[in-house]
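Changelog-adjacent note: as of this version, every example in the card shows the full chain rather than a window. The one below runs 383 residues end to end.
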Amino acid sequence: MSSPHLAVIGGGQLARMMQQAAIGLGIRIRLLAEGDDASAAQVIADKIVGDYTDLDILREVVADCPVVTFDHEHVPPAHLQTLEAEGHACRPGPAALVYAQDKGLMRTKLATLGVPQPDFSLFDPVVDPNGVQNFADRVGGYPFVLKTTRGGYDGKGVWFIYKESDAAAALASGRILLAEAKVPFVRELSALVARSASGEVAAYPIAESVQKDGMCHEVVSPAPDLDPALAKEAQQLAINIAEQLGVTGILAVELFETPDRRIVVNELAMRPHNTGHWSIDGAVTSQFENHLRAVLGMPLGSTSPHRSWAVMVNILGGVVDDLESRRALVMAQDCEVKIHLYGKNVKPGRKVGHVTVCGDDFDDVVARARRAARLFVEGDTHE
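Full-length structure tokens:
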């Protein structure tokens, strides 16, 4: 077997969709997966099963791979520094990735760059047991948000604090905490950019995302009724962050749009992102293909959309535990729906796939995408 062009650390659905993009470009991927049945391990032949926190396993995976990229952001920075010292290009590199791994470092760094973001404070509950009340006093009271600086995702490690006693679980976590002022917002937006090793950048249309229970549920691209000047500002902000942090690959900047039509940065992700899944079927070049192009130093592809609207809805585990039994039903209902199943066991609330519908009639596209996702979860054939 020929040597791979790229090592991908992590066997989730993002790596699975990277493989989908890699096939057409002739890119050979070697995967480090957490198990033989992991989402990406089902579709990538060249794989090793092991623990991404084990440096020896990482060395085995990347042995003959010139470039390394990631399905997630949890690989220890010290291990990545070692891999780089041994001649493997980690993209994004540890110096950039740390700002996606640690929300406290992210906030502190973005503050030095003058990026619009919530008022925040970092504190160790052991050293500063009055940190919650101190922050409340600083920002004029409750509510506000507490987050663990590391390890949280999809709403995990996040607490909304309406009174001091609401912080009990966060304080009991034993972790450094990030307190953030609660931002009044009218909706959430996502600015997605690709930046190559040469510094070339490409920006996708600004998308609107809808969250449920702290998890991305629905994405509309482009964001409806977004002021063109604000859209341009959001794209340029994401490009500037990518350049200032030295990101190679996809950078997703999750944003709040405030009632007075400003944007405020919520989170960063340095990998293909749920809010960019629409691009697989809705853009000339998907975020996954552009991520591969970027990390391998290839010219970036066009981010232009195919149609006026693309709507992606996540399929979350529900009462239907056999998704394959629903495929034909969804296809029969709407032959233009694009279906992406991740090969995961169905658990309530777990992301197990997504559907995308593209078209030129906004209301029609939204309704069809929602109906298709609902058919997978509930088996309901009604609007």
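Structural remarks: The chain has a mean pLDDT of 94.
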